[in-house]
Structures are given as structure tokens and as C-alpha cells.
Amino acid sequence: EQWFASRTELAGKRVLVTAGGTVERLDPVRYLTNDSSGKMGFALAEAAANRGADVTLIAARTTAPPIEGVKLVRVESAEQMLEAVLERYDSADLVIKAAAVADYQPVAQAAAKIKKSDERLVIELERTTDILKTLGERKTHQFLVGFAAETEQLAQYAMDKLARKNCDLVVANDVSRDGAGFNGDTNVVEVFGEEGLIESLPMLHKREVAERLLSRIVLRMREKAA
Ligand code: CTP
Ligand code: CA
Q1: Which of 105, 113, 125, 161 has the fewest CB atoms within 10 Å distance of its CB?
Q2: What ipTM describes this predicted complex?
Q3: What is the distance between the alpha carbons of residues 223 and 30, in angstroms, rounded to a whole number?
Q4: Which bound ligand lies closest to the C-alpha atom of 128?
Q5: DSSP string of the chain?
Q6: pLDDT tens sequence across 66-111
Q7: Does the reported pTM lie above 0.90?
Q8: Please, what is the Cα angle at 94 between 90 and 97, to 5 degrees?
Q9: Is 34 one of the catalytic residues?
Q10: Does residue 97 have a known ligand-binding role?
Q11: Which residues place a Cβ less than 5 A from the ion ligand 2?
């Protein structure tokens, strides 16, 4: 089984990658976000571009620098990410949803800075739209790859997300493990398909994880098309 890249194996394919942590504003100077660095998503976008794909990277808050040869679309909130992804979904061949999308957003966004008072402040949150689930419902020809960030029962939750969101593959990482997940340069992931666990990767640099994931994805896309 090969996992090295050919420069052309995704030539002619349109790839959408989402990355980073969404930012949900409370007022003009305050927001809710998460620990995602965006590095995994950026590495995946680069790995897809290295294989000749036409890559658009939709990035929320991130510390990663832009990638040469990859179109970068910056967004802030889950709502903006949804819009940016849907706009490009029909023409996409492969969608990789590596972003850490907020599950909740403030019900109200104050137009002016919230002033303090002596009372307790209660912030009401409502659910965001599940972007990946929406894509799964509208899937026609696209190959859909989701992520699952878990701290327990990795396989069960990953398989549940795969089915619920109609994904072709789910990349699961145990974010409570050393060397895995949100902020570091390495990750430890397992890949799930409809038949269950497909591949467990050792702790690797995120660039290497991305290369191996893309090889797996390409294999699966070919199988699906055959
Ligand atoms: N996701 C999304 N839109 C959301 C929330 C999540 O597209 N509003 C996507 C993420 O980008 C990821 C996958 O769904 O690819 C799984 O995200 P995760 O947070 O692990 O799962 P959730 O379904 O949000 O469930 P929970 O956080 O309760 O585990
Ligand atoms: Ca979530």
C-alpha cells in the first residue's frame, strides 16, 4: 500500500478545506472561540495542493500562515463559514471539514461594547448550524471527510458522527492525549469508514498526518468512483 504523493493524483479536482476555530462575537470587542490552531487544516490544504488539486481553504481564527497556491477565504463565525462553504459546495469534489466550529453562538450580538454592572451577567447561547451535517444532507457527488474531536469513546462517537453526518470518512483524534489535537505540531488520529476503523496512525507531525490522510482519501475516492 502506497502513501507517498504523486504530483497529479488530484489534478482537475476541486477541494474545499475548512480550518481554524470559529469566533462567535458577544460585542465588538469580545468573543467566544476555542483552542484550534488551524494547523491540521492548513496542512491538509497544502497536501491536497501538492497532489495537483485546485484548493480553497476556508479559515476561521488561526495562527497558520497562508499557503502558496491555495486560495484563502477568511471567515469569523460558524454562520459565515457555512455560507462560504455552501457557496462552493456544488462545484467541489472533495470537502475536508477540519475546522473547530463552535456548537453555540450568543443569541444576541451587542452593537456597542457591553458595560459592566454590579449584577451577574448571564449570556444566552443558541446552537449554530452543523455545517458538516448540512453538507451530508445535500451531498450529491462530493467526497465528504469530517473530523471528530473526542476525549472518550473515540470509535463509538466517530462512527456515530460518520453516520449522522453522512460522511465518507471521519478522522478522529483523542484531544486529551499528549501529542494529539488542538494546539501542537503533532497529532494522533484514527480514520473511520462505514465499515469501522480503517487506519490508526502513530504520533506524527501534522504535515505527515496530512500526507497520509490525503493518500487514504485518494484511495477511497477511487474505490467509490470505480
Ligand atoms: N462541525 C460542523 N459544524 C458545527 C459543528 C461541527 O461542521 N456546527 C463539524 C466539524 O468541523 C467536524 C465535525 O463536525 O468536522 C465534528 O465536530 P465535533 O465537534 O467533533 O462534533 P459535534 O458534532 O459538534 O459533536 P460534539 O461537539 O458534541 O462532540
Ligand atoms: Ca462540537
Answers
A1: 113
A2: 0.99
A3: 47
A4: 1
A5: ---SPPTTTTTT-EEEEEESB--EEEETTEEE--S--SHHHHHHHHHHHHTT-EEEEEE-B--PPP-TTSEEEE--SHHHHHHHHHHHHTT-SEEEE--B--SEEES---SSPPPP-SS-----EEEPP-HHHHHHHT-SS-EEEEEEEESS-HHHHHHHHHHHTT-SEEEEEETTSTT-SSSSSEE-EEEEETTEEEEE--SEEHHHHHHHHHHHHHHHHHHHH-
A6: 999 999 999 999 999 999 999 999 999 999 999 999 999 999 999 9
A7: yes
A8: 100
A9: yes
A10: no
A11: 103
189: which 3 cell numbers? 488520529
β-strand pairing of 104-106 with 125-127: antiparallel
Instruction: Provide the percentage of residues in the chain whose pLDDT is more than 70.
Output: 98
> Residue 186 corresponds to which cell in the numbers above?
503533532
Residue 86 C-alpha cell reads as 455552501
